[in-house]
Specification:
- The protein has about 350 residues and is an alpha+beta fold.
- It has four domains: about 100 residues, 2-Layer Sandwich (Alpha-Beta Plaits); about 60 residues, MutS, DNA mismatch repair protein, domain I (3-Layer(aba) Sandwich), CATH 3.40.1170.60; about 50 residues, DNA polymerase, domain 1 (Orthogonal Bundle); about 110 residues, DNA polymerase, Y-family, little finger domain (Dna Ligase, domain 1).
- It is about 35% helix and about 20% strand.
- It contains 13 helices and 14 strands.
- Strands 5-6-1-7-8 form a five-stranded mixed β-sheet.
- α4 packs antiparallel against α5.
- The N terminus and C terminus are likely disordered.
- It is found in: Cytoplasm.
- Monomer.
- GO terms for molecular function: damaged DNA binding; DNA-directed DNA polymerase activity; magnesium ion binding.
């Protein structure tokens, strides 16, 4: 299988290891080596992040707290400290900036870097990734996993390959072969529902996906079929774009156990609100439209939106609007399997006349 015909890029994907939980274990020695869940509580709520010790029991982010407790009775819950996580994220971003200005953040704890041309003048992207990991550890006392490849899709797969504290390289000649053995559910951008649809069509691995025609994939998956056709061949032409214009920013969770009470739904919204607010703060983006997405147990999906006259002044206002939108669908007659929060009508205006956003 030939490598892509376009000039070979050198892309690194950096993903912090169990970021929120690792920060809590770093700052509280009593938590080190123990199963930790950030968010939720022993009585109710949803896990926002889990330490690797908790993950060995099957505890995962977006899992209901009661389910997490059943899997790990000794699980320790801690309240999230998002201001601390954002400050650490800024330290990590500063390390990236020592090597390249082509940084595309995906969240507080992961980003793509294009180091084809870099400030360190190094020819080896692998060496750059090694140095970045070492500087992150020195600066924050935290570990990161790095994936190095010739495109974004493979770099992200590579960073997941040897977590935690991993460094894995996929060379151009190896990309298609690496993809073919992986389950499609492990591909970034293919969620549980899409993976299930693929499985129903007899597509279980990258090799199965590669054997389908582009026409077949677009017929079953719409425009995304074109993307699936190419990534099955190790091809991804997307550039690392630090200045991409976004029409919206969103975050969503599919829950391990369907949520049915108002309290569980309100708590399930919190990490989503934090995600989108943190992104807007960091990128100095203002937003005027808030959209709540709800998917029920039978996969029926609804959205509720509200647009205000000025940009959102603070997280408290965003949370209030989200809860008011939630109230409009209560009580629920069946369980909720997914919640999403998105912000749109974006601009570079980040303050109201009398209130300035807190940036880090």
């Amino acid at each position: 299988m030939p490598a892509p015909s376009s000039p070979i890029r050198k892309i690194i994907h950096i993903d912090m290891d169990a970021f929120y939980a690792s920060v809590e274990q770093r700052d509280n020695p009593e938590l080190r080596g123990k199963p930790v869940a950030v968010g939720g509580s022993r009585a109710r709520g949803v896990v926002a992040a889990a330490s690797y010790e908790a993950r060995t029991f099957g505890v995962r982010s977006a899992m209901a707290s009661v389910t997490a407790i059943r899997k790990c009775p000794d699980l320790i819950f801690v309240k999230p400290r998002f201001e601390v996580y954002k400050a650490v994220s800024a330290q990590i971003r500063a390390v990236f900036a020592e090597y390249t200005h082509l940084i595309e953040p995906l969240s507080l704890d992961e980003a793509y870097l294009d180091v084809t041309e870099n400030r360190a003048g190094l020819a080896s992207a692998t060496e750059i990734a090694r140095q970045i990991k070492a500087k992150i550890r020195e600066t924050t006392q935290l570990t990161a996993s790095a994936g190095v490849s010739y495109n974004k899709f493979l770099a992200k797969l590579a960073s997941d390959h040897r977590k935690p504290d991993g460094l894995f390289v996929i060379k151009p000649a190896d990309g298609p072969r690496f993809v073919e053995s992986l389950p499609v559910g492990t591909f970034h951008g293919i969620g549980r529902v899409t993976a299930g649809k693929m499985n129903a069509l007899g597509i279980f691995t990258g090799l199965d996906l590669r054997q389908q025609s582009e026409e077949f994939l677009t017929r079953h998956f719409g425009k995304a079929g074109h993307h699936y056709y190419h990534i099955a061949r190790g091809i991804d032409e997307r550039a690392v774009n630090p200045d991409r214009v976004r029409k919206s920013v969103g975050s969503e969770n599919t829950f391990e156990t369907d949520l049915s009470t108002e309290q569980a739904l309100v708590e399930g919204l919190q990490p989503l609100i934090d995600d989108v607010w943190a992104y807007c703060q960091h990128r100095q983006i203002g937003a005027r439209t808030v959209t709540l997405k709800v998917k029920y147990a039978d996969f029926q999906q609804i959205t509720r939106s509200r647009t205000i006259s000025t940009v959102l002044p603070d997280r408290t206002t965003l949370e209030r609007i989200c809860q008011e939108l939630l109230q409009s669908i209560l009580p629920v007659t069946q369980g909720v399997r997914l919640l999403g929060v998105s912000l749109s009508t974006l601009s570079d205006e980040t303050s109201t006349p009398n209130r300035q956003l807190t940036l880090f």
